[in-house]
TrEMBL record:
Entry protein name: Sulfate transporter
Classification via InterPro entries: MOT1/MOT2
Keywords from the UniProt entry: Membrane, Transmembrane, Transmembrane helix
Transmembrane segments: 21-45, 65-93, 105-131, 137-153, 158-174, 274-296, 303-323, 335-365
GO molecular function: molybdate ion transmembrane transporter activity
Metal-binding listed as a keyword: no
């Protein structure tokens, strides 16, 4: 499949920034990471993913790990150790065939529930953490963003996402002093190779990789595979392929000062919703991070901080709605539809939601057959 670089791919390149940017900045601040290194590695992995898959298949910060890092203010060594640990674990599961066997345990109704639950949790996050705390001016900005998206939705000549991003950057430039501060901070930043210690890898496995693994299996692997089939039915993206790129990306990221990353169904839907149809959108998205890192070094995060938080919330909301819409493609049986809804609600609402939701959904899905077997 060819890659096309046009205004639609440019608009689509911003479809996942609402998820990525707050998590990246939060991890940089909490862990004392070098923003230049984080952005350079993150952007480079985006570019490689776009070229390899030739689909809008982005890399995302690992969400469960990000939350733990931000809450616990973990050291850089443990963050890098967690990246190596999750990368090795995923490669081991892929090489032994266990990843494909685990993926086969998820019926379509449960996968749709995971997609629905992720969409619902992202929508709640957008409102509670991005839009509502931004105050009156932020609410006006969010309302304007929703208006732009609704008026220009699926407009082929003037992509809604591109107009929204341009308006957001202009608003941020006019209301913040970031451009002035950045004008005096031009500094190229380069990567250095350094593996984390065995102690950091062991600690990272216990503190970060284990809590992340259920979410990765459910969303990063199973739901992402299904979303690829939904949006690009002519492309065969296997569980094994996703597992390999997931594992390799984390080993590379941890070795060069980046944060742990994954693929994700939400990011794929976000890019697609904003107009992306090829890997060019992810290449463009990655190039933005790489450029910011090379030009501004440790101040790179301030470049993308031009985006108002409320507008990131708008982008995240449309990503969420795109995921939730996929739930309608679940199995036609009434019980399967109930399983999809129940799985999604548990994933979004319960502690350790994606682990509990997956187990709940699989159990409910097979409950009628089990009942018929044990009934006298």
């Amino acid at each position: 499949m060819f890659m096309r670089f046009d205004r639609h791919e440019l608009a689509g390149s911003f479809g996942d920034i609402g998820t990525d940017l707050p998590l990246l900045i939060g991890m940089i601040a909490a862990g004392g990471l070098d923003a230049g290194h984080v952005f350079l590695v993150f952007g480079s992995l985006q570019i490689l993913s776009g070229i390899y898959y030739r689909l809008p298949m982005p890399m995302q910060p690992l969400k469960a790990m990000a939350v733990i890092v931000i809450a616990g203010k973990l050291s850089p060594g443990i963050i890098y150790g967690g990246g190596v640990a999750i990368g090795v674990t995923m490669l081991a599961l892929t090489a032994t065939g266990l990843l494909a066997r685990v993926a086969a345990l998820f019926p379509l109704a449960v996968v749709r529930g995971i997609q629905f639950g992720l969409g619902l949790s992202l929508a709640l996050l957008a409102v509670r953490s991005y839009i509502w705390p931004s105050g009156v001016m932020g609410w006006y900005a969010a309302a304007g963003g929703f208006f732009i998206m609704l008026i220009l939705w699926q407009n082929r000549r003037l992509p809604a996402g591109l107009v929204l991003v341009a308006a957001a950057v202009l608003y941020g430039a006019l209301t913040q002093n970031t451009p002035t501060a950045l004008a005096t901070s031009w500094r190229a930043d380069w990567l250095t190779f350094q593996l984390p210690s065995a102690t950091d890898i062991a600690t990272g496995f216990l503190l970060l990789a284990l809590p992340q693994l259920p979410l990765s299996l459910a969303n990063s692997v199973v739901a992402t595979r299904q979303t690829c089939a939904d949006l690009f039915p002519d492309r065969d993206v296997s569980i094994r392929k996703i597992g390999v790129t997931y594992g390799v990306a984390n080993l590379v990221s941890a070795s060069f000062g980046g944060v742990p990353v994954c693929h994700g169904s939400g990011g794929l839907v976000g890019h697609h919703n904003f107009g992306a149809r090829t890997g060019a959108s992810v290449v463009i998205y990655g190039a933005i991070f790489v450029t910011a890192a090379l030009l501004f070094g440790h101040r790179a995060k301030d470049v993308l901080a031009l985006f108002p938080l409320s507008v990131l919330g708008v982008i995240l909301t449309f990503e969420a709605f795109g995921l939730m819409r996929l739930a309608r493609l679940t199995e036609p049986a009434k019980w399967a539809q109930f399983v999809t809804l129940a799985t999604g609600l548990v994933c979004a609402m319960a502690p350790h939601g994606f682990l509990v939701g997956s187990v709940t959904g699989i159990t409910l899905y097979h409950a009628p057959n089990l009942w018929r077997k044990v009934r006298p």
